[in-house]
Each structure stands twice: as C-alpha cells, then as structure tokens.
Amino acid sequence: MQQHEADRHADIREPVIELRGVSCYYDTFRAVREVSLSVARRQITALIGPSGCGKSTLIRTMNRMNDLVPTYRTEGSILFEGQDLYAGSVDPVAVRRRIGMVFQKPNPFPKTVYENVAFGARINGYTGSMDELVERSLRRAALWDDVKDKLKQSGMALSGGQQQRLCIARTIAVEPDVILMDEPCSALDPRSTLQIEELMAELKRDYTIVIVTHNMQQAARASDTTIFMTMGDDRAGYVVETGPTIEIFTNPRDRLTEDYVSGRFG
Amino acid sequence: MSTIAPVAGPVPRFEPAVMRRKLSGTVFYGACLAAIGLLLLALVALLVDVFVRAAPWLDVDFLTGVPSSRPARAGIFPALVGTFEIGVIVGLLTFPIGVAAAIYLAEYASDSRVNRLLQTNISNLAGVPSIIYGILGLALFVRALAFGPTILAAALTLSLLILPVVIIASIEALKAVPQAQREGAYALGATRWQMVSRSILPAAAPGIMTGIILAMARAIGEAAPLILIGAFTFVTFLPNPLEGQYTVLPIQIYGWAQRPQADFQGISAAAIVVILVLMLVLNALALVVRARLSRHIQW
C-alpha cells in the first residue's frame, strides 16, 4: 500500500511508464523498432494501428509478459515510476502485481466467481478480509449486482461480457497501479463493449490504463491520449504519431495517421 | 459469367448418382454395427458363462474364508487383503512420484532434445510387457535389495509397471490446460510454482485422477509379474507386508483355475466375479471423481 501513497504524492504530470528507444526482438526478427512514448498517470492511453504492427508485443513488454517467450529480448529502456523495469534486480513477479493485464479473450479460472477474484489476493499474501475485498473488487468492476447471489458458481458459466468484467475485478483486487488491456472488447458483443468502456472511464480515477485496440471508434470515444503505430517495410512496427486523442482524430500531423483514422487503410 | 470463354468440345455434366453414393454409406454403417454386435455378443457370452458357474459358490463365507483343499470351504479373504495392501502401497508410491515427474516434464523442463528423448522413453516403457517388470522386480527388489518375496516387493514392482502410464496420462492432462490460464495467473503476479500448484494442477486434476485410478485398476489385475516374484497360490493366513508369503486375487484365480475339478472351476469363477466387481467399482470411481473435479471447467 505504500506505493499508492507515493503515487498520490508523485507529480501528476510525470509519466507512469516511459519507453525510450525500445526495440523488441524474437530471436533475430525485429518486431518493434525504436519506440519512444510515455504513459500519463490516471489517463487512458490507446494504442491503435493495423493488425500485426506490434501493438500487442509492445504492451506485453510493459509488464514483462514477454519474458515467458524464450526467444524474446528487448533493447532500449523501459521505465516504470522512473525505474528500469528490466534491471537485473527487478523481479518480474513483483512487476506484474503492480502492472496488471486483461486479455483479448476472457480467461477466468475454472473456479467459483469468489475464488477467481480472491486468487490474485491469495497468492500475494493478502491479510485483510477476503469477503470484503471480493465484494469491493466486484463492485468496482460493475459486476457485483450480477453475481452477488452467484459467488459460489463457476466463473466460466458467466456470459462473455461478465467474464471480462470478472477478469477486470480479479486484476484490480491486487491493487495495481496500471491496467494493461490487450483488445479487451474484441471478443465481446457491442453492448458488453459499451459497458466495459463505461467501466474504463470510472476506473481511470484510480488506475492508469493502457489499451490496445483495433477499433478506432473505441479509441476515439474512450481514450485521452492516442498512439498510432504501423508496420514498416522491414515488418517492424514503429510509432508514427502520438498526441491527445482529439487531435489525432481531427487534426493529425502525419499523412499516414490521417489515412488510417479516416479508414483508407488498416 | 458471360466473360467465361466457351469450352471446346462437349460440355461436362454432373452425374450425381445420389442413391448409389448413399448406399456405400449404409453398407459401412451396417459393417460397424455388425462389428459392435459381435463384440458385445462375445462379451455377454463370457460374462454369462462366468456368472452361471460362479453363482452357487458366491456367498459371504466365500468372501471371508481362507483357501482350502476342499472347494466348499474355500474363501478369498487373504487374497482380498493382499490385493488391498498392494493397491494402497502402489497408490501411495505412484501418485506423488508420477505426478511430480509429469509436472516437471510438462511445466518446467525446456523443450530440448534430451527432454523429448526422455518423454519418448517413458512412453515406450508404458508398452513393455508386464512380465519383464516381473523379472526386474525379482532381480532388484526381491534379490538385490533383499526385500524377499513379500508384498512390499510386489507393490514396488507394480508401481514401476504403472508409473509410465501415470506419467503420460498426467502430462496429457497438464498440456490440455489452455495457455491462457497460465498467462492469467502470471498476470496477477504469481510465481511459477503458484501458477502450477494453484491454477494448472487443479485444472488438470480430473485427467490426472482418472489416469491414476485406471492405472491402479490395471496394477491390481496383474498376475504374471507376481508369479515371477513369488506370490503363493495357497495362503491361509493374513500376510505381513514386510515379510512372508502372500497372495492376490489374480494369483488365487490362477491357482484354482489350474485344477481340473469342476468345483475348483466354480470357485475360480466366483473369484473372477469378485475381481470384475472390483474393476467396475474402480472405473465408476474414476468417472465420479472426474465429474466432481471438472464441475467448473468449460473449455
């Protein structure tokens, strides 16, 4: 909890996550080229671009999920609260508690709804009241009313949109600073998508959110900052332009950006 | 369509012949039914024969009595106890060793040449005839380690026999858990062991438990390796696992079935019924355990 206190005192203008000259490699193949960007505190930053341009690779770099791929390595520096995320002394397990992730296809555990939310808290040694934590997390994920009578039922028996909100609930149960979302709505119907977007608007009061989306309208609706990436001729992704969402969509500086947001490609 | 160039020569037509095509399907379906019917017929004939022979001999005295040279007084209690004791020891040994080996191979070992070779070898061991394990058990447990022809040696031998099967079944169960489950656990800040023990193992439990129960059912039905390592066919007392003579149900059946007298054939059939019921119970247990453990799983 100490980190949250530090967070409140930190300069709100200092970025939570910063990438400087980051390139991502799978063996010798460079998937992402020389990306520099910063993620602002308690805002929603959207990463948009055509399929295959490295958005998922980039976001998974931010919580060291790519460590799970044996052939993966990064160059450049990735800073979290000013500290090198990939320093030798940093334990990825500790990183992932503070930078959580919600995946494209909802992946609740085959356990009860209650145990799904409690899972993260248990493995991180939570000492408080579990009942209270579960209820609090489900309320903040706008799921409590749907499941309050069904806490002992299987988490996998919920609908797609509910499952994704359950995944969000279990992520916020460990009190992260940042929530990374890798196309969280692409497997959901439009109504559930809207519910999640409304949820995100509320969550950004407490958490910094980075969302990868191939849905431009979603980025335009829901985000504060937008980063546009595309794939170069060498099949490596790179950042074309970043800026406030309003500007990216109404007055982009780069020709490529304009083509993409007006639907001429992608 | 109007831009397609005309074909030279007569225009090819279709000759659907639907009735003829459906006929071959019907014929194949009939052949499959006939195969199943034949199999069921043979099975039912076998069961009926056994039950008819066993019926006059199957009573409580049979289950609680000891073998005797007079069939009317013979019972299978020592054999039941021997089977039970061996079953328990085999279960206690193969469960931790088999599951731990499977977890290592499925979750921790890298995908190197050596490890793949190791897994292939374990698969091959699962197909080795059981009598070879009998020879191994005789040389290793009975003689080299001087356990002698005891229940302990028998249980160790049978454990070696079913260990490859348990490992393979457990590996399959672990690999069947989707990768998304591992990512979900990691993303919440789990260590590798926490991910394996709290997320993957519970999800793989139905497959693992089914594998163990079925493997144990096989182990307690084995006779050949136990003959080699010194199980007796005439044991009238309850065996001490660490010393002395013992017998098990399959061996008892073997001993009685060898006698020409019709009465011995009768009690042999009765013992066969008992072992069949035991197998049925174990298989049913496997189904129940699987259903209970997989009640939340929907993938």
Description:
The complex is a heterodimer of chains A (266) and B (299). By secondary structure, chain A is of the alpha/beta class. Chain A has helices spanning 2-9, 55-62, 92-98, 113-123, 130-140, 144-147, 160-172, 190-203, 216-222, 245-250, 255-261; strands at 17-26, 29-39, 44-48, 72-80, 83-84, 99-102, 178-182, 208-212, 225-231, 237-244. In chain A, helix 4 runs parallel beside helix 7, helix 5 crosses helix 7 (160-172) and helix 7 runs parallel beside helix 8 (190-203). Chain A has one domain (2-261): 3-Layer(aba) Sandwich (Rossmann fold), CATH 3.40.50.300. Chain A has a six-stranded mixed beta sheet with strand order 6-7-8-3-9-10, with helices on both faces. In chain A, strands 2-1-4-5 form a four-stranded antiparallel beta sheet, with helices on one face. Chain A has eleven helices and ten strands. Chain A is globular and about 55 Å long. With 299 residues, chain B is mainly α. Chain B is 70% helix and 0% strand. Chain B contains eleven helices and no strands.
Average predicted confidence as pLDDT of chain B:
91
Share of helix among residues of chain A? 25-40%
* Strand segment tally of chain A: 10
Q: Which geometry of chain A do the CA atoms define?
A: globular
CATH class of the largest domain in chain B: Mainly Alpha
Query: How much strand of chain B?
Result: under 5%
As a percent range, the share of helical residues of chain B equals: over 70%
Number of strands of chain B: 0
Q: What is the CATH homologous superfamily assignment of chain A?
A: P-loop containing nucleotide triphosphate hydrolases
CATH fold field value of chain A: Rossmann fold
Query: Uncertain segments of chain A of ≥5 residues (pLDDT<50)?
Result: none
| Percentage of residues in DSSP E strands of chain A | 15-25%
The helix tally of chain A amounts to: 11
The coarse silhouette of chain B is extended
What is the H/E string of chain B? HHHHHHHHHHH
Q: SS-based structural class of chain A?
A: alpha/beta
CATH architecture of chain A: 3-Layer(aba) Sandwich
